[in-house]
Amino acid sequence: MFEGLSDRLSGILSGLTRRGALTEADVTAAMREVRRALLEADVALEVVRSFTDKVRDKAVGATVLKSVTPGQMVVKIVNDELITMLGTDASVIDLNAPAPVAILMVGLQGSGKTTTTAKIARRLASRDKRRVLLASLDTRRPAAMEQLAVLAKQVEVESLPIVAGQSAVQIAKRAMEAARLGGFDVVMLDTAGRTTVDEGLMNEAAEVKAATRPHETLLVADALTGQDAVNTARAFDTRLGVTGIVLTRMDGDSRGGAALSMRAVTGKPIKLVGVGEKVDALEEFHPQRVANRILGMGDIVSLVEKAAETIDAEQAMRTAEKMRKGKFDLEDLSMQLAQMEKMGGIGGLMGMLPGMGQIKKQVEGANLDEKMFKRQRAIISSMTVQERKNPDLLKNSRKKRIAAGAGVKVEEINKLLKMHRTMADMMKAMGSGKRGIGQALGNMFGLGGGMPGGMPQMPPGMPEPTPEQIAQIEKQFGGKLPPMPPGMGGAKMPGLPGLGGPKLPGLGGFLPGKKK
Questions:
Q1: Any known ligand binding at 194?
Q2: Longest CA pairwise span in the chain (Å)
Q3: How far is CA 338 from CA 21, 180, 347, 375, 491, in A?
């Protein structure tokens, strides 16, 4: 997500920060490159013009040009304007209304509307503890109702029984009545879509809205369609008055122009983004975090949240205790690999860490294969319990048996054992404070001398978080950042003063911190 744009903007802005002083010509030239980068990312022309004009007006002021670090000031201005473009504050689905709360899902055919409806239902049921009823109003697409019923079972919520021959409005009214009688908190109405915006589509959606009076009208748009998604959003908002936008397939959009344009063009917040096909691949959209990631400043808060959701605290504590005793067997390694996969792999983690853009080419040059984790876990699963606990038992005959069971060559087993020995040695060394996390990661994944300087600092010229930004981050957690469960590492992230020393999640011991 935003990978191409992030690379371009980081390169342009780093050129400014390396200069001792800036002239108006320097700023104008840089804004010309920023304009080109945004247009290549498929950002709407009107949004690009507004963005670059605002940045230029602020950047050529006396405060910037005469400041001690003018390049850093320009970066801060770009960051602030990006946040403004994306919506300033995160916006969530509003359920503050008398039950049952109706949520109307609208959008074009093929945008992922039905799947997104199920994802949101799962989120409301599991996180907000609401009783959700799903109802398909799509009477035209073959098996559309059956699809939503199957998805409802998959996410463990209830769906409205299918009655043939009813119109969309009749189904919507029946869904609202069933929700009232059944004591449901939320009713999600999945409307029909078309390949293009037409009068029939809009009329049907308008009739359903008039009959159900939904508290939320969410537009589902495909991020990969670029400017078409922006035009679709404008059309739906004009006719129906959408309250929020859900962007799908953001994991496949390296440009990100639709997300950057949507909020600025419609004035409606992007509430959620789909980042995969699985039913749990749905994330809240936080403008400040997205802006930070675009400019290569990482997203520590999202990393902490993801760790809290995926890491088993008790298991992590047991692993940490074993490490303190100098023990790290293949069972532990398998657990670390599984947790790394849940966190999005090495690539997913690096996208959230500040300064990772500086070593991106080095990581790519290592040809890191994310599927390696699955193969290595398969190898460990083919071992006996005794072999996992005592790798020294693995002689040639045992290796051949394990290789046959896992469907790999003996060389793969030797690589795994070498990796395990490296990690075991690393745990001991880090426990005594002899080696940094950056060096450890480098040795584990073949990055030669490790990550330059250990854990990356904030890139030169990247602005420190303001007190307002810090307060906004801490607001997400009720006033302070959440402490990580015991045993989940302890490496404090540098370069983020004022955040109370947030700890980088150790993946249940994958990146343990130094002993104190």
A1: yes
A2: 75
A3: 49, 43, 15, 11, 21
Q: Is 256 annotated as a binding residue?
A: no
pLDDT of the residue at 226: 72
Q: Are residues 106 and 73 both part of a single domain? A: no
113 marked among binding-site residues: yes
Instruction: Let me know whether 339 and 290 are in one domain.
Output: no
Residue 472 annotated in ligand binding: no
113 and 77 share one domain: no
Report pLDDT for 309: 54
Count CA within 13 A, CB hemisphere, residue 168.
25
- Verify that 498 and 364 share a domain, yes or no: yes
Q: Is 336 annotated as a binding residue?
A: no
Q: Is 114 annotated as a binding residue?
A: yes
Q: What CATH number is given to the structural domain containing 198?
A: 3.40.50.300
- The two tokens of residue 359 are 């070593």
Question: Residue 454 carries which side chain, given as an amino acid letter?
Answer: G
- Residue 404 is assigned to a structural domain of this protein: yes
Q: Does the annotation place 454 within a ligand binding site?
A: no
- 59: domain CATH number? 1.20.120.140
Q: What per-residue confidence (pLDDT) applies to 440?
A: 45
Q: Is residue 348 part of an annotated ligand binding site?
A: no
Query: 302 labelled as ligand-binding?
Result: no
Is residue 31 a contact partner of residue 77, using CB atoms and an 8 Å limit?
no
**Whole domain around residue 284: which residue ranges?**
101-294
Residues 469-512 have pLDDT tens digits of: 555 545 544 444 444 333 333 333 333 333 333 333 333 333 33
- The answer to whether residues 154 and 280 belong to one domain is yes
108 is in an annotated binding site: yes
Taking only the tens place, the pLDDT of each residue in 199-211 is: 888 899 999 999 9
111 marked as part of a ligand binding site: yes
